[in-house]
Structures are given as C-alpha cells and as structure tokens.
TrEMBL record:
GO terms for cellular component: cytoplasm; nucleus. This is Serine hydrolase domain-containing protein. The lineage of its organism: Eukaryota, Fungi, Dikarya, Ascomycota, Pezizomycotina. GO terms for molecular function: hydrolase activity. Residues 27-264 form the Serine hydrolase domain. It comes from the Eukaryota. It comes from Aaosphaeria arxii CBS 175.79. Residues 1-22 are annotated as: Disordered.
Amino acid sequence: MPASISPPNGRKSTSKIPEKIPDSTNLPRILCLHGGGVNATIFEAQSRSLIRHLQHSFRLVWAEAPFFCDPHPDVIRVYGTYGPFRRWVRWLDQHSEIDSESCIEEIGYSLRTAMEEDDRAGGTGQWVGLMGFSQGAKLSASLLLEQQAREDKAVRERKAGTDTGPIGIPGLDWRFGVLLAGRAPLINLNPDVQKSAALVPAANVAESFEFVKEVDDEAILRNPTIHVHGLADPGLALHRRLLDEYCDKGSTRLIEWDGAHRIAIKGSDVEPIVSCIYDVASEAGIRVVRTV
C-alpha cells in the first residue's frame, strides 16, 4: 500500500518559510504542466501556496500546452479573461483530430521550448521533477513512464545510454513526479518502444478509453510519484485507478484532502504536500530547504 497522509482537522501550521526568497538560478528545476482548458499563467496563480514553500528549494518552470481550446468550466469565473486556453491532448470529441506522431511532436516541442527558454533566462540547475495538475498530471506520469520504457529497453539491449525521447533534450533524468488530481489511463508517448494496450494513444480521447482487465508490467510506473487526491473531486475514481493500477505500490505516496477538482491553497492542506515533496526529493539525493 502507498504511504497515505490526510491532514487532520484543526491542524496547526508548522510553517517556517524563510523571509528571503533565494536566487533560483542554480536550484534544481521542476517542470510544471497545467491542466486542460487553462494555461501556464493560470496554473502558476493556482499554485501560489505551493510556490511560497517550493521556491526555496526548486526553480519552478511553467510550460504552455501546444493546442488551443475553450476554457475549462471550473476556471471561467475567476480566470475567464486569462486566455488563450490550452490543452495537451484531446479530452472531448469536438477537439480537433490529430495523429499520435504529430501530437507527441507538438507536446515535445512545447516542453523543450519552455526548458530552453528557462536556460536562456539563466536557469542552470538540473531538471529533477515534473509537477502537473489534472491533464498535466496525466502527462507528467506518462513522461516518467516513457523515460522508464527507454531505460528498460537500454538494459535489454545492453546499451550504455538511452535516446532522448519526445522532449529531445539529451541527458534528462526525471527523478519524481507530483501528480495533482492525475487520472488514468496514461498516454503512450513513444509507440516505437511502448506496446502496452493499457496506454491510450496520444491521438485518442482519453475519456473514451476502454480499460484493460489487468495493466501489464510495461505500463506500471516505478519512479517515485506523489499523488494528491481531493476527496470531493468528481474524478476521484480515475485518480485512484492511476495510483492503484498504473503505479508500483512501493514507489507512491498518497495525500488526501477535503477538496474538489482544484489545487490546495490553505496552509493546513498545502503543508503535507510540500513535506512529502521534500521527503521524496531528499530520498532522490536532492538537497532541500524544509519549510514545514
């Protein structure tokens, strides 16, 4: 069973956030992937409470998805003027069709652009983690799984290294993923290597996917992942399916909170999440400044 943390009611804050925000130039970097029907600016605004903590240990980089779409209904009231709105993959039938190869190329280009732009902005830290919300969490886990598939292939073929994968940047080594309301199934981002029927093709509408009876080993993610589930989220069953069926039990941490389909803001909800991120990062050999 994954480690599970539920913030107790009435929990007092144990926050010890430093007053001075550090220069993030050399900090390890986390690539942040927004959900469907929003954009990087909105995701950054929604994550403001997480940022207050994480900016002392990580440089957070906010990527824009490649495809335009209508705003997600949940963000219209607050962020309705923050367009254009974007998506990584199709989740509605009315979204424009695209073949899997082109979709993967567009996703890779968008991620590579964000990473290279941050290099030009002065970032020099190693890329260590992925953090995504909703569709961005699904993509984050899928990127981790694609990396794992290339690593497994290199072992089978007794190669010293791996190909670059969809992002196209040599030497990337994602060490963990923070999956905020991420749902199954995962996306096949490398059809030449990944053959599992448990993965949805990048061209398809994920919500129409017919799940297999049992997820095979090739589609089970072994890299460390933190799963954040809102207990009032209407997609909770699919979030739990990602955790229970697509991730190795020994590599996951679960945090549940009394929220809907959104990102935690209140300190008592946020602190267990960032504490868990610090734990996982430390276990991966990354030095952190603990703020809780």
